[in-house]
Structures are given as structure tokens and as C-alpha cells.
């Protein structure tokens, strides 16, 4: 993605919208921040000479507009002392975050985006809905628990028959949403740790796919294999995103598992652990194909300096959790 002045402007207003929403003291100001964020992200999705990006931008606009409408109406009713509208408000935030059972728009929209925009949708665009959802975490704990269970099942089963990598990472993001909502039920600091680690893991995987121009399982198989170091990095990044020990991605899941055990929420814990087995299956399926990763449009040989920096950064992200598990755990306490 080329950072033209217009893209820099829209990126700045996107971040400004997030800051306005999470720092606001009224639902109207939070709604304004969400709308600013929405109107800033749509131009970033749209790309000339690409009908799929236009379709993704339209889908994203319609769904987010629906969520904003429900949120605004529910907020007005709550201000009029009608507390029964807190459930529709939470549902609107779940819709904006792409959580089950309101996940129907997320994988198809993600499929029409390029990798950088897909990374923003999977990570940055979840910040505001999750922060606003934390305000009603006590009143809507049951609703959020049900949404977490459904997200775990949908994310695990939905990715089993996918061959498009963007759709597969979309279902993976839905599954990680289940873990993030479970972490939010425990504490905001637990959710923050999980979100930061998940964002770092997603960044490492998406950048590898982006610079190798990989969009489909077939792109992972070629007769011209690249450097073995790239294969190792891809192997580690995918397994770390799956939360397999001893990689960094396991640290936040370990913390969530411990806190769910302490709170005796065993039903949610069993569903999350069971769904992780399915997600690890399709991560391992990609990993086996990534052992022969190559692409006709690969850029590793063109930008060797960028390749070396990305490899070093990815290795650090995947292994830093091994060095500071006690530090990460003390952060949660």
C-alpha cells in the first residue's frame, strides 16, 4: 500500500476517531468517533482498477452503518432510562467487531481487501468496539459469554474448508475474538495483553503473505523454494498465531486459561480449548504448504534489505514471549 498524502490523512483521521471514541464520556461522542473511523477506513479500502475492493468497501459501509444506527438508537433509549436497550447496544458493538453471531459480513469483506487493509480490519478496527463493550461487561456478561462461545465454534469450523488465505485468517480472527471476549470478562488488562500479542502475531503473518503476494493455498506451492530461513519464519509465525507453546502467542492464552480456571468458568474454557484444536489444524495445514513457499510475484529477492529486517522482526516477535513469561504474567496481576 503506497502512502500518498490522502492515505496519510485518512489514516490519521482513522486513529483520531478511535481516540475520540475511547476517551469520550457520552455515547453520542463515542458514536461520532465511530463514524469518523468508518468514513476514514472506507477510502483506505478502495483501490482503483480493483472491483473487489469496491465491493468490500460497500459491504463494510452498509454493515457498519447498520451497527451505528442500532447503537445510536439504543444509546438514546438508555439515556431515557430504558435500560433494556443495553442488549441491542452490545449487539451493535459485536456486529461492528465482527463477532459471532454477527460475523456473516467479516470473511467476505476481508476477502476483497489487500493484505494491509485486511490487517487493519483484523486488529485496529476491533479496538473501539471492544473498549465500548467493556462499559457494559457487568450487565451483559451472559450475552458476551454466549457470543464468545459462538465465535469460538464459528471461527474453528468455518476455517476448515477454506482455501483462500484472507478468508481463513478472517475465521481465525473470529476465533481470536472469542478469546478476547473471554479475557474481557476477566479484566481489561487481560484483554489488552491478548490484543497486543494477537496484533503482533497477525502483523508478522500478514506481512509475510503481503511481500510474497500470497492469497491462495496454491500460491504456497511452487517448484522454486526460497530461503530456508523464510520457511522457518513462516512456520513459527503461523504456529505462534495458533497459540502453540512455546511461542509468544501461547502466553496470553495461558493467562486467559488460568483466569478462567480461577473463576470456575469451565464451560467457556472447554469450548475455547476445543476450538483451538480445530484452528491449529488449519494453521498446520498452511504451515506444511509454507515449507515450499514461493510465488511468481515474490519480492524477497528484489528487496533483500527489507527481507532481512522483516525476518529479524518476525523472529523477535515470535520468540520474545519465551524470554518474559513472568513479566507478562505480572502485568496481568
UniProtKB/TrEMBL annotation:
Its EC number is 7.1.1.2. The chain crosses the membrane at residues 58-79, 85-106, 143-161, 191-211, 232-254, 266-289, 310-332. It is an enzyme of class 7 (translocase). One of its GO terms (biological process) is mitochondrial electron transport, NADH to ubiquinone. It comes from the Eukaryota. GO terms for molecular function: NADH dehydrogenase (ubiquinone) activity. Its main location: mitochondrion. It is a multi-pass membrane protein. Keywords: Electron transport, Membrane, Mitochondrion, Mitochondrion inner membrane, NAD, Respiratory chain, Translocase, Transmembrane, Transmembrane helix, Transport, Ubiquinone. Residues 24-279 form the NADH:quinone oxidoreductase/Mrp antiporter transmembrane domain. It is found in: Mitochondrion inner membrane. Belongs to the complex I subunit 2 family. This is NADH-ubiquinone oxidoreductase chain 2. It comes from Euphausia pacifica. The gene is ND2.
